[in-house]
């Protein structure tokens, strides 16, 4: 389990910690402030991305790692982003409708039948 | 040639790569589902999502992440006692995180905000009230059949058993019961039969979909239907009516009496009153009040929440899997802490790798907090 290649990078972890705390406070502040929903979403997610970058870069030392990090993380990132994109056309656009399509079409068929039937009856009466 | 990092670290990063895809599947699906819905429960009264508790948990994880990175630094400097101290703090914070999460989960369970249990429309909410009342009636009736106070071939048939429960005050004591035991059953049968009537009445109104003001499934009801003009309907049952009925049951019980009042007619015939006596009446009023408390605890106020079930599914699957990861992290740190004062540099890679894992757990929460608690 041992290896001697533990390079020490002089990172001020305490400063990163305070940045993360500040960002969390900022997220809560954006929630408390009455802004349009869209603006809140963008701001809060931007803060989350900033926090995630801080953790990855400094706490996980990715800033100081070699280029292997791209080789390792690029495929997984592409697949991770690909999933929501693949789901969106099928599920993300009104997946949840209250009227069952088969019932609606059945009702349409009945209405059509009744219309035709009424026309036939009227025709017969003449 | 090769990647210039220890094999264990490469393994951890490859594992984290799969973990990224694992959590993105949940988070991505959640975003897609939410964008695709025509609404989403966000009010505290609906979701019981507590931003303050979520915020505290975010802070707890950030502090723990800081402690882990400092612990790894201490390991690299061969300051093992210091590293152990920071890892202890991290583990305690992990416990704190799970404790707060437990409080949040309890709030959800107490309000029945669970996948598949949330009514999404008014009619579903009314049916849920009737179902929960039925469950209570079944449980109460089971006490009679289980103790052989009532002998029934089909104990599950509560509609068949109800007349036997109603007739219990004037029934003869079975030899298997003492006098006091049987009197207690006689007293409770009056309240339990009233509860049964309340449930049956509500159920019939739901089935017929008529207002509680109109009788349902009786000769009067059928006569009223006959009088209707073609195409006209009796007033439909409204959620507000059911809500009011339930509120009354929760405050005054199924019998509509206050302590000290005489029993109303619906509690039984003169023979029944004679059987229970004055002392029996006191017991019945006390049972009625007790039943009001039982209904309050067992039957939830009707609260339809559109998209509530998909919300609850997303909430529990994401926070649940995250909590499992927290527990795994605690085990990883526990292995190091188990070494006690004999912790040495051989554990440096272990601490670094479990630290990477822990930061990832923090990273997931960084996204879950805004997505579930704020937006």
Architecture overview:
The complex is a heterodimer of chains A (126) and B (375). With 126 residues, chain A is mostly helical. Chain A has two domains: 1-65, no CATH class; 66-125. Chain A is 74% helix and 0% strand. Chain A has helices at 13-32, 37-59, 68-92, 101-125. In chain A, α1 (13-32) runs antiparallel to α2. Chain B is mostly helical and 375 residues long. In chain B, α4 (80-110) runs antiparallel to α11 (308-337), α5 runs antiparallel to α7 (179-208) and α11 runs antiparallel to α12 (348-374). The chains are: A mainly alpha (126), B mainly alpha (375). Chains A and B meet through α1, α2 and α3 of A and α1, α3 and α12 of B.
Produce the secondary structure layout:
The complex is a heterodimer of chains A (126) and B (375).
Chain A: H1 13-32, H2 37-59, H3 68-92, H4 101-125
Helix pairs in contact in A: 1-2
Chain B: H1 7-36, H2 44-47, H3 51-76, H4 80-110, H5 122-146, H6 158-166, H7 179-208, H8 219-227, H9 239-252, H10 270-298, H11 308-337, H12 348-374
Low-confidence stretches of chain A: 1-5
Rg from alpha-carbon coordinates of chain A: 29 Å
Helix segment tally of chain B = 12
* SS strand fraction of chain A: under 5%
Give start-end ranges of low-pLDDT stretches of chain B: 258-271
Question: Strand share of the residues of chain B?
Answer: under 5%
Number of separate strands of chain A: 0
Query: What order do the helices and strands of chain A follow?
Result: HHHH
- Global geometry of chain B: elongated
Into which percent range does the helicity of residues of chain B fall? over 70%
Protein name (chain A): Oxidase
Membrane topology (chain A): Multi-pass membrane protein
Main location (chain A): membrane
InterPro entries (chain A): Caa3_sub_IV (IPR011743), Cyt_c_oxidase_su4_prok (IPR005171)
């Amino acid at each position: 389990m041992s290896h001697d290649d533990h390079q020490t990078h002089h990172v001020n972890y305490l400063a990163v910690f305070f940045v993360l705390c500040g960002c969390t406070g900022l997220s809560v502040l954006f929630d408390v402030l009455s802004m349009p929903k869209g603006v809140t979403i963008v701001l809060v997610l931007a803060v989350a991305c900033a926090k995630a970058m801080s953790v990855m870069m400094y706490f996980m030392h990715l800033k100081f790692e070699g280029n292997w990090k791209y080789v390792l993380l690029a495929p997984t990132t592409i697949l991770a982003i690909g999933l929501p994109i693949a789901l969106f056309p099928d599920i993300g656009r009104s997946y949840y409708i209250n009227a069952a399509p088969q019932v609606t079409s059945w009702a349409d068929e009945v209405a059509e039948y009744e219309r035709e039937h009424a026309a036939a009856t009227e025709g017969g009466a003449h | 040639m090769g990647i210039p990092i220890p094999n264990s670290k490469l393994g951890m990063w490859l594992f984290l790569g799969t973990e990224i895809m694992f959590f993105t599947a949940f988070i991505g699906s959640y975003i897609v589902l939410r964008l695709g819905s025509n609404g989403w429960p966000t009010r505290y009264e609906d979701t019981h999502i507590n931003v303050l508790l979520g915020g505290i948990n975010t802070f707890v994880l950030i502090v723990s992440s800081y402690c882990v990175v400092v612990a790894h630094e201490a390991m690299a400097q061969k300051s093992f006692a210091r590293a152990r101290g920071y890892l202890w703090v991290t583990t305690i914070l992990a416990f704190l995180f799970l404790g707060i999460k437990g409080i949040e989960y309890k709030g959800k369970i107490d309000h029945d905000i669970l996948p598949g249990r949330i009514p999404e429309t008014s009619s579903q909410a009314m049916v849920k009230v009737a179902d929960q009342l039925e469950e209570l009636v079944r449980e109460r009736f089971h006490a009679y059949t289980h103790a052989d106070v009532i002998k029934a071939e089909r104990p599950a048939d509560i509609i068949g058993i109800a007349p036997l429960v109603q007739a219990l005050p004037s029934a003869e004591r079975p030899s298997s019961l003492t006098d006091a035991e049987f009197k207690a059953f006689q007293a409770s049968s009056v309240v339990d039969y009233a509860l049964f009537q309340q449930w049956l009445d509500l159920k019939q109104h739901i089935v017929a979909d008529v207002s509680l003001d109109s009788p349902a499934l009786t000769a009067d009801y059928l006569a009223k239907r006959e009088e209707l003009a073609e195409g006209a309907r009796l007033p439909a049952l409204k959620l507000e009516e059911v809500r009011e009925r339930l509120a009354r049951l929760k405050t005054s019980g199924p019998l509509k009496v206050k302590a000290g009042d005489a029993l109303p007619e619906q509690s039984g015939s003169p023979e029944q009153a004679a059987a229970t006596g004055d002392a029996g009446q006191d017991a019945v009023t006390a049972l009625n009040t007790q039943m009001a408390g039982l209904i309050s605890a067992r039957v939830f106020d009707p609260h339809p929440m559109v998209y509530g079930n998909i919300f609850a599914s997303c909430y529990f699957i994401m926070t649940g899997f995250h909590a499992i990861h927290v527990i795994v992290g605690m085990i990883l740190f526990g292995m190091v802490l188990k070494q006690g004062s004999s912790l040495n540099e051989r554990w440096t890679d272990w601490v670094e790798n479990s630290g990477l894992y822990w930061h990832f757990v923090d990273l997931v929460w960084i996204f879950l907090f805004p997505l579930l608690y704020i937006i």
